[in-house]
Amino acid sequence: MFSKNIFKQLWHRIQEDDLPGLAAQLAYYFLLSMFPMLIFLLTLLPYLPIPHHDILGAISRYAPEEAMALIETSLNSVMEKRSGGLLSIGIIGTIWSASNGINALVRAFNKAYNVRESRPFIVARGMAIVFTFGMITVFIVALALPVFGKTIGLFLFSQFGLDDQFLAVWSAIRWIVSALILFGIFTVIYWVAPNVKMKCKAAVPGAFFATIGWTIVSLLFSFYVNNFGNYTATYGSIGAIIILMIWLYLTGLIILLGGEINAFYSEKAKAC
């Protein structure tokens, strides 16, 4: 898939588009949009058969411990002070804020494809909000799989007299499906977000890279921070914030790299 020459061309694109700088911007927007999105998701919990700890548990599989502790503390503090139901006026502002991260991604992808945003503001922002709702919906489905997947597996186990080995395989499949859902999210974002007409399959290389890359980088960074990196000793009480920002920066960088890969192959296809 990659040759030495392709790596050089991609490296040139990374420098030309200033991906490290864009990733830093995304980390800022992700930080601002993360808590509104999670607050909205937690506001839905009374209407869903999903325990509170399952949502935070899904994040904790990838986030470093100190960053996770900061997220839990901040969310608990905000949720305790919130009043009113799901259909309050405040939820509109929450969704608007949560869509800022997607909106920043759209601008970054347009830069990768060297196009301007010609869609009306209402359309562009509306698309970002729809993506935000879509990500929340998919996130709920991804959480429901571990919650209800075990129940389904036990039902099949008892009905068809399958052995214990099947139950172990079924448990592994549930997590593979979660990874496929993540791949689906990236594919749709890479396909629809840029202001470029393209086929869905053109978004697959970047989505595949982002899915594998983000999972590996998140797990490795979490392992490093939890076992070797003592940021609290260096930064004091704001160490957890620094860790969260670095994790969000790495997330943004991986997603942008996926967009650059798609844009690169798109240019090569046009040149042929």
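[next item in queue]
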Amino acid sequence: MASHSSALPHRTDLLTSLNTDHHRLGLNVFLFIVLAHWAEHVAQAIQIYVLGWPVPQARGVLGLPFPWLVTSEWMHYGYALLMLVGLIVLRRGFTGRARTWWTVALGIQVWHHLEHLLLLLQALTGNNLLGRPVPTSVVQLLVPRVELHLFYNAVVFAPMVVAMWLHRRPRSEERARMNCDCAAVPA
């Protein structure tokens, strides 16, 4: 619990708790989920580019025993939605420069989410973009899906990491506005 919490009114709602007394826990759980997903994409890239597996057989780690995970647009959409919700829910706990970087990650994830929504709608309706044989996102018209999702995950993850780094090391004016105990103790 944050040392400043005695000065704040008792807060019981989950969103407030996740951005005050439990912000660090929320960020750590969210980061674990993001890293696990990122590891799946990296494993898939290694299977393709290092081990020389054909793309349909390169399914990451969990996709090998559970191949439906890779082909399920619902699963991909669900993860994109989870990322979007996590970025929105945990945003209130950030201040200053960290909030700016977190907002950048959120903005990029909004687009990533819309791309997955487009893929899901195509899978559900059978009407694929520009008559393609499989569901296709807008940017996928230019970049293959494996590489595109590596890119999307990287460009959302990078500003997230910057935000978390700055959040743990705030300037004095940022620290004064924080409602959580995520900041490292000043030297």
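[queue empty]
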